[in-house]
Amino acid sequence: MITSFTLASLPVTRWQNGAGETREIVRVTAADAPFLWRASIATLQADGPFSRFDGVDRVIVLLEGAPLWLRGGNIEHRLEPGVPWAFAGEWPLASEGIVAPGMDFNIMTQRHLASAQVDIATTAQRPEAEGVACVLKGRWQMAGADHHAGGGIWWQEESPGDLVPLTADASLILTTIRRVSGR
């Protein structure tokens, strides 16, 4: 299964704390957890705590907006645009330094069921059998269609074939999901 998306096509859900909203790209179900893996794009409107997800590994990529700090406990990380950062869902993090609304890409995996590898690609790619590709800049040919910033594809059970940059400035977030053996 290969599914295309655009930012405008994704349903909007407000955060419980009112500091932003999420547009879910995909949620793959699991029998013994709320999800096996999940990808989304979130709008960051104000500083505040991240939701806690026990047993979940997360990767975040700032899509739009100024760099900001993620802090909590003894963790202090500067989140820069276009640079993936992996962290445990149990970490008590809060965002600091949001001066104007921004957006980020999030991938979450149930640690005991799957893992995610997130890379920034600027050249043609042939991904594996499960994942998400989200365009950062330029245009890409994916699954027989052109995709622009904020759009892309997700897939399961088959490779979508070659992902090909169509412009010199093209870059995308390429997420590969690897399931734990037997899941």
Question: For this structure, what is the CATH homologous superfamily of the largest domain?
Answer: Jelly Rolls
- How much helical structure, as a percent, in the residues? under 10%
Mean pLDDT: 91
Which percent range describes the beta-strand content? over 45%
Question: What sort of overall outline do the alpha carbons produce when their principal axes are compared?
Answer: globular
Which consecutive residue ranges, at least 5 long each, have pLDDT under 50? none
> What is the number of E strands?
18
Largest sheet: 6 strands, antiparallel
- How far is it from the N-terminal to the C-terminal residue, by CA? 18 Å
**What's the architecture of the largest domain in CATH terms?**
Sandwich
Count of domains:
2
Give the CATH class of the largest domain: Mainly Beta
Please tell me how large the radius of gyration is. 16 Å
Helix count equals 0
Structural class: mainly beta
Q: What is the spatial order of strands in the main beta sheet?
A: 2-3-4-11-6-9
Please explain how this structure is put together.
The chain has 183 residues and is mainly beta. The protein folds into two domains: 11-112, Jelly Rolls (Sandwich); 115-179, Jelly Rolls, CATH 2.60.120. It is built from no helices and 18 strands. It has strands spanning 2-5, 12-14, 20-30, 33-44, 48-49, 56-64, 68-72, 75-79, 85-88, 94-96, 102-110, 114-121, 130-137, 139-142, 145-148, 152-156, 164-165, 171-179. The chain has a six-stranded antiparallel sheet with strand order 2-3-4-11-6-9, with no helix packed on it. Strand 2 (12-14) and strand 3 form a beta hairpin. The protein is globular, with a radius of gyration of 16 Å. The two termini are 18 Å apart. The relative contact order is 0.22. The mean pLDDT is 91.
